[in-house]
Amino acid sequence: MASVLLSTHSSNPLEVGSSDPRNSHYHRAYRKSQEARRDDPLSSDDLLNGSYRPPELDDYHEHISQLFPGMIQRRSSVSTVRTGKQAPPAYVDLDVDMSDDELLIRPNEGNAQTAAVDYNDEEDAEGSDVDDDDVKLSGEQGSEDEEDTIHLKPPEERAEIEAEIEELESSVPQLSSDYKLVDRLGTGTFSSVYKAIDLAPEQCDNTPWQGPKTRASIPQLSSAYINADFGGRVFVAIKRIYVTSSPERIRNEIAIMETCRGSRYTSQLITAFRHKDQVVAIMPYHKNEDFREYFREISMPAIKAYLRCMLRALRDIHARGIIHRDVKPANFLFDPRSGVGTLCDFGLACRMEPARGHGNNTCLHTPPTRSDPHGRVRLRNEYNIEQIKRVQKDTRNKSTWSSDKVGYAEKDPRPTCKANRAGTRGFRAPEVLMKCGDQSGAVDVWSTGMILLFFLIGKFPLFQSNDDIEALMEIAVIIGRKSMEKVATLHRRTFASNVPSITPDGISWREFVEKQNPNVFTPPPPNTRYYPYTMMPPSAIPSISMPPPPLPQSRSKAVDSSLRPKAPTEHAQDVEFAFSLLEGLLHPESTRRITPRDALNHPFLRDPSEPDDDEMFPHPYGEGVCGHLHFMDEVTEEPCVRVKTRGGNSSGSKRKGSATDEEDEEHNKEDMDNGGWENGTEVIVIRAGEGIAVGTQPCEFHRDEIL
Amino acid sequence: MAAALPRRPLAERTSFSHEQCSAISQNSVGSAKRARSPEPHPAKATKRIRPLAQAATTAVAEEGKGRKKVEREQQKAEFREKYTKAFPSWVFYFDPDILDVANTEALRQDMKRKIHLLGGRVDDFFSKDITHLITDQVPGTELPLYNKENVGKSKNGTSSLLKSPIKLRGRIVEDVLMDTEYSLINKAQSFGQKIWTLTKLSSVVDRCLATPSTGQSQSLTTSVSATTQQSLSRLLQSERLNGTCERDPSERRHDFRYFSKDSYFVLVEDLHQEFATIAAHEYPVPKPHSATKPLWPILHCHPHARGPFIEFDEKERRRWEKTQQAESAKEKQALHVPRTGRPRARPTSLHLQATGHGDLRRSVSMNNIRRRASHPNGVLRDANLVDLDADEYDNDLAYASGYLASGISGHAAASGNSVGLTSTAGTTSTTGTVRNALQLTATLRGRLQQHVVTSKKFPNGEREGSNGPMAPPDGMPGRTTQAMLRKSRSTNTIKLPRRDEGSKPGYCESCRIKFDDFRKHVKGTKHKRFAANDDNFLQLDFVLARVKRCTDEEVRKAEADRESRWRASQSVSYSG
Questions:
Q1: Residue B21 contacts by C-beta under 8 Å, 6 or more apart in sequence?
Q2: Do residues A18 and A200 touch, judged by C-beta distance below 8 A?
Q3: Where is the sequence biased in composition, kind Polar residues (chain A) (predicted)?
Q4: Enclosing H/E stretch for A392
Q5: What is the pLDDT of residues B254-282, one digit of tens each?
Q6: Whole-model pTM?
Q7: Of A132, A316, A326, A438, which is the active-site residue?
Q8: CB-CB: which of A422, A474, A684 is closest to B309?
Q9: Residues 621 to 680 of A: which have CB under 8 A from any B CB?
Q10: CA distances from B471 to A253, A602, B488 (A)
Q11: Is the pLDDT of residue B126 over 70?
Q12: B552: contact with A, CB 8 A cutoff
């Protein structure tokens, strides 16, 4: 059923031939998890909203694999087992979503017979799934639909888009041989994005942008990357960067996207190429909806799903030294049906670099470091505390003076303070407005906090922020004078103002929300079009053809208790947690703003049924358990790995015989010291996105060697 | 060196100072400290300040001899006074090689700032003009030298000779000649420069600055004594050099712009006053009972208003009621229409889009007026595009080019990207440059306020007339006029203007020129020449090569290659 949706698209790691040695591990792990699932068809550890979320059984799988190591050896070749139509699952097909995302977490894949699916049986698959599909009232688009979206637009616009497509195809001749452009997805400040069909995806090596190959027991990883496949047709997004952008700007964006390969829920660069001045970047197409369409209607679990995807994306890109700088709903492609979102548009992204370029613009906090991703306040002996206190006092006095006594240099001979302020108004963090020279990923976290505000308040946008001063003042009237002065000092600024609406203590973000949305504790009516209701069995949703009833009481009668949207107390608990997280995300002091990693561990987002996020964290290249075997070529900047020579089909463990793991490691090091592949290791140049270690696991190249 | 020699006769004074120094370092008694203050000071003083230093020394010497157990506080004050006097004539040089310990950089910056504060100078180049070499490398070498000298001369007790610091220099020269290990230090010593450790410098500086606020307030409030007068003159000097931090804040300055009386202001400045004013803005206060709304943000947080800063007044109430109606209508409709297909028409979102930014409309146009009025010297504003540092220039230029393609024309396709919410890379708007309503002419200000009260329409003539640099180019799908008109249309009939990509004006980052017509520009010879030259894309091509999509075939081939190499190696090793 759902498993047959696994198409023949090569983006599916399961599709890679089993002869591929790298992939065989993946297959093995996948099958292992299938085995495990058979034993546990109805996982009960679903704590989310009583909805039938596909069970995540990682811990269980681990356990099973320890108990029955033999299972791992069960590796019948995929092509030999043809089951055609699978036996009906032993339990209700919970997974009615045909989303292309959650490929590996479908309970019905747990069926042993389906473990080795005939992936060629795709036509049937589509047919068999239709019945389930109508549950999603909004109508899931098939690939046909996706191809024809342009016809839904007014003729005028259609003509315009078609003209643009034609122009693009003529200006980049190599485009039309590989892609068929079908629609325009959007236009931005520096680019336009088009939807296209990848004409021959299977002829390409797609491993670099499909994310690390991990055990199937880490289901989120697969859904974090693969989302481009629609019933066998692979859609891509083609970003046409306007030719008036400087080559350096384009280089920056492409290089950053290359760095971000392997980051979860992050738009992956498939490739990019240039013809004369026209550069196009190819990325997977992610289905999404306009934020304003759903942000007031989706339920708590969906908000959590949104934030989890966002914060995982941020965690991963920040770990790679990248600040997105333009986090906002428009740059987060969220599909409210599947609950999967993808961070996109790295046009304004930058690298966190020691702010040497900013002259003396040093703050009272450090630049981001590994241990302090948002920097930390400098030690007392690193600055003159007396002087700062004095200036603070003077500034405070200034705020009380008569305005005509307060002035500033008219023709200021001093240098202008420079700091990156790229971003969108209303989403800029205080430190950006203060022109902090050592900005960190904290600016993205602030923007994420803004989005949580939209969800909780139910309004978008909230801030006017026509310019940076207005933005600063809007923040000031909320957080109050004291906080504002603290922030100013942190970034080596003074903030003086006599504007009466700035109170000494401001209000908490919680208060800010509650005042504007007194109903925040009332759970919203379930909207069956949206996650997680899209994941429910048809029978569980009582009024299929009815829209969500407007009033909670009429709703609760019909819905069976397990599926009822949050019991009020449960919902209230969620809101409380959300408030708590909100204060962390929107902490005015960047150094004290919660990091994405900590946010994912926050009670609001931590899902006990999932493994810890650290377990799913794709390490930056050269880190993780096998990091010492990875390096960057100093000249070409290409990633390289040192691996045991893969001669024939012998695996590392066979060669080692009874050697223990430690000896194995020792041996590796010896090999490396000897250098060269004659001694059993060789250096392979790989591509960005390959060779990424996840959690405590080694990357796909070292699976045999480090266990 | 030659110059130093004639002064040798007076060398004894130096010895005194050295003795004192060592005494201090050994026992931190108050009296010792007091003595210490005068000495290093004259010793380090250059010719230029000799008279001053001399006077200071004498005074201190007398006092010191007179009462051995003077109050600590007074000594501190004296120390401060002497050093403060001498500081303006000192030129410091920081040994660049040595300061690599953690946190030293910050400390050094701090020291530099404080030196400036005291009127001293920090030179980036080592030269004869330097009076003090700051280094951490040689305390070991340095001290013995001094100590030796101290031992030798201290017994003389000719402290009164100290008046001339020049002696010291001559003396040092001699000693220094023996030391060959540290060339920089040798040089410094041969020039007769003082060699201080960073710790020493910071101790001296901190003591000088220890209670400057009280000292200052005294100088400002109490009758002006001779000493305070001196420090005042220095203060003024430092003020001229460094800005306002030490001046009497209530005193008006001719080179300052002051906020107007009874207005509200916000002023963001660099705490260390090293950078130009970060942000300054003034809000005129509307007259009581006038209908003019305040321009500064006020937190209303009304549940039915569209935003937290929007007052829920009659107008807003009507708007809210309208929205409610539209929503209930939509819900009704949804009830009747079986929800089989994905709703294509999006009444809510369009409605939101249409109504959601009413206030932006006002403020945007307001700001445009304000900006245009406040920056008649448009060139300066434009200069922002250029004077940004390397990191940012990209972004800023991008903004310029971004103008042409900004989401203003309202493509809903970019999800959630409301009309007013497009990314800006480095807009030149505001922060960093200073806005001030004061700069508006009275009439304009009047009009501006009127504009808020009476009509939301943009005064068209105004716009044409004062098309400042912040204004979008004329033909733009504007943030102002056009956008407003469009948004003012009935929400039902709202129709986004057709996007005309071809005739967008903007800025080409490659050619570094503004253009009126996108298409014309990119087809022009200049741009074409740029596009045809691969050299311009060298770095980009380098990255593009790394992300080139490999065919499966290529990958297989590479793998096969590796395998065959391995086989070859196997056979070699077997045969070997």
A1: B36, B39, B40, B146, B150
A2: no
A3: 1-13
A4: helix A385-400
A5: 888 899 988 999 999 999 888 899 999 99
A6: 0.62
A7: A326
A8: A474
A9: 636-638, 645-648, 677-678
A10: 28, 45, 20
A11: yes
A12: yes
